[in-house]
Design a protein that fits this description.
It is built from ten helices and no strands. The chain has a single domain, classed as Hypothetical protein af1432 (Orthogonal Bundle), CATH 1.10.3210.10. With 177 residues, the chain is an all-alpha fold. 33% of the residues are buried. α7 runs parallel beside α9. This is HD domain-containing protein. It holds the Pfam family HD_4.
Length: 177
């Protein structure tokens, strides 16, 4: 697993650095977010039956590469494999769709794949439910909360440990609005 982790981390770190992407609201490199998502998945694997951690950890580290960098499906398929590329693509919101249906579309695609893809989505939202960026207004914060509820509801039954973690984070997040 360490070799797979390092390969995916280095690939993602390079792509997000090339895109000059920082952690939202900070000057920290974006790889901090990716490693936080990976840590959620690693801990979840200790509390989950039959979670393919080798697959899950790679997509946890790669989950934003297509959405936020110049990386393509073909790039990921060439460096990793088709199954990982399909997982990362499912975790990517389709920018060609209207903004209000992008999450629903992504969640629909996630549900068609292995449960590890849903686990990464749950872990991603757990990690993102921190103090909102200062530039977010109250409406954006409420919408982000509502979207978290949609993720939890849609992916219910995929990973009990992460679902419970997300439920707790959603409750905590309410004090921001």
């Amino acid at each position: 697993m360490q070799t797979l982790y390092q390969k995916a981390l280095l690939f993602a770190a390079e792509k997000h650095t090339e895109a000059k992407q920082l952690l939202t609201g900070s000057q920290l490199p974006y790889v901090v977010h990716l490693s936080n998502v990976a840590m959620e998945v690693l801990v979840a694997s200790q509390h989950s039956e039959n979670l393919d951690i080798n697959f899950a950890i790679q997509i946890a580290l790669l989950h934003d590469t297509i959405e936020d960098t110049a990386t393509t499906f073909n790039d990921i398929e060439a460096h990793f494999n088709k199954e990982i590329a399909e997982a990362v693509l499912a975790l990517t919101k389709n920018e060609n769709l209207e903004k209000n249906i992008r999450m629903t579309d992504s969640l629909t695609r996630i549900k068609k794949l292995k449960k590890e893809v849903a686990a990464v989505k749950l872990a991603d939202r757990i990690t993102n439910l921190q103090t909102p960026p200062k530039q977010w207004d109250n409406e954006k914060i409420k919408n982000y909360h509502k979207e978290a509820l949609q993720i939890l509801e849609t992916l219910s039954g995929t990973n009990e440990y992460l679902e419970n973690r997300l439920q707790a984070k959603i409750e905590e997040y309410k004090h921001f609005f």
